[in-house]
Amino acid sequence: MHVFQKATNQRTRAINEQLVLRTIYGRAPISRAEVARVTGLTRTTVSDVVDQLLGSGLVEELGLGRSTGGKAPMLLQVPDDARHLIGIDVGDSQLSGAVVNLRGEVCERLELPLDGRNGEQALSRLEALLDGLIATVERPLLGIGIGTPGLIDTSAGIVRWAVNLDWRELPLAERLQQRHQLPVHIANDSHAAALAEFTFGGHGQMRSMLVVKVGRGIGAGVVLNGALYQGDGFGAGEIGHSSVADNHRPCRCGSTGCLETIASTRAVVQRARELAPHAPESLLHAVASPDGITFEDLVAAFAGGDQLATEIVTDAAHHLGRSIGALVGAFNVQHIILVGEMTVFGEPWLAAIRREAHRSALALLADETSIELGRLESNLVVLGAAALLMTRELGVSLGGAG
Amino acid sequence: MHVFQKATNQRTRAINEQLVLRTIYGRAPISRAEVARVTGLTRTTVSDVVDQLLGSGLVEELGLGRSTGGKAPMLLQVPDDARHLIGIDVGDSQLSGAVVNLRGEVCERLELPLDGRNGEQALSRLEALLDGLIATVERPLLGIGIGTPGLIDTSAGIVRWAVNLDWRELPLAERLQQRHQLPVHIANDSHAAALAEFTFGGHGQMRSMLVVKVGRGIGAGVVLNGALYQGDGFGAGEIGHSSVADNHRPCRCGSTGCLETIASTRAVVQRARELAPHAPESLLHAVASPDGITFEDLVAAFAGGDQLATEIVTDAAHHLGRSIGALVGAFNVQHIILVGEMTVFGEPWLAAIRREAHRSALALLADETSIELGRLESNLVVLGAAALLMTRELGVSLGGAG
Prior knowledge:
five-stranded mixed beta sheet, alpha/beta, 16 strands
């Protein structure tokens, strides 16, 4: 057989295997005949592939289903715990990790503070966290997924630039692969958050969504037609460093006026520290020293109806809303989901974002776009990192109704 | 055979036919054996499909090629004039149309002024143009492609909203299909312009690009991984109506501060009319009456180094640059191409756009992004409409190296 033809056949087999696994994962319990009907593959092909999947434990037989005339069909499913996955969230101040199963259920969780560590020290910390998690795993381990801030080349597994960690051109995936002898996949944390919402957020048939993560940094993850869209250089959704104002406020990226300098948690705290001394009536004025104002102080003042806190948060939402309006026009993706620490400001914050996003985009497009808070309360990046691993290694996703 | 299986087989045949045609179109002269090698299809399948294509005249035999050992192979190609296509550009003031061949070469051109017609009258004008063009066609006609401003549902063939023409929810494709008994495909004019650059612009291996059309209106067409990306509601690239300034200038869309109110040809002419009376030293001051200043006057003054004209054009470019910077962050598509009437301001305009786009996006992404003027001098939307028709009916595209 011709070498090229052989390669093609191997690729076809791999595609068929992923197609069958995805179908069983998304539609279980399901019979071989039904898999053949749904996928359009022949029954022989389906039987061969299912035999392989039974052998590797990724599929199991459930028992006989109801007969529709002939012999009762054997039903198949993917056991939730057929594989376990490790997902890691490289945060600004701590590393969080979990062992999860194929449905995104958390079996084990670990956290390690970074305490200001960066570079090689942060990396050692990450390895320690992985060692700790791997020690708890009692099922076949599929691999490791990692979500980290910065510009991440998901294909090559390289952290191109993560400013807080001082990682540059770091071949993170290869390094961890060699250490742990497991598949490792890495992605930007906002991209991971988008995969988490898409895969485990219960959004039903939704095939495309923008997930905007607003915390200490701001970034979006883009899911188009069921797949993560990362752009030519893996920087898609990098909206935090787009200029939105001529405020000359310096940004950690080296530029000024970036969205992050107005709408991030860092920015609103900074603003509160600047304005509190001049607002004697504000709850924030009462904090021991202005420079001691924390995000939690601002959240408490906002919850107490404090006017200064409300103004700061609304202004942040207004600018974020305009950037989101620009995304409405650019992508025309009709489902926009907000996640991250800033969502703690809830409905008033969301309302201000919706108002400005609607005002600043073509009405016909804005009318058809929903802007909502995310559905996953915690472990967002951890789950997204696991979803990345699952998608890349098994071709399996629960998103967009499988 | 099961109905579903049959449908799958028919679909497989159609996919194979498009794959073979695309391969011959992009790599001619090529032998059947080479097509099999490139596509990974069996020789028998390729022979069957080629027989069909020879029968329909879409492929022809060129003669024997050089032997590489065995029998000399028969070489195949797609004749440039195997089909002719009609492409239409629904402009603001006129309708332009052309008959082109499968390489985008224009065989015949017609224009009809709209003279302020809209609604049903503009539609009659379009039908008259089509009658005129169809009468000139001497080859098998593949169909009609149309590019028009506004929000266009390409799948359903419906003009959802074209403000200048006062067309709303107009089933344009169906109406023309019935009249002319030919396949009809329609798209937004910026989307068509993007397809034109992608298909006929000679951009080689480039698989993704943003084409920003800056004329009386402003809009972008998005090509991602070799295909036109239109968004959930066909509004992708609708950047002209994103708010970029709090200038309160009313936009024809009903909002204020839209990019179109600052960076379009209309906006710069408007600005010149406002400022010329206060600038006695300007060439624009010499125009008979300020309200009589035309786009051509502005172009002439700019070419003459007039300071006011330079300021107006540079300011327009600055705001456009910021919007393009936002696109760099949103899509991270590394090739951005500018087309439309504003490109007449050439290098100084382009330099101001590049400067602000670079400043207002993350440096690492901006460094890897090129912003260039388009390569097609004329007939952009006409050619794009033809490319749309060709892609949808034959699955054939020259873009991204076939």
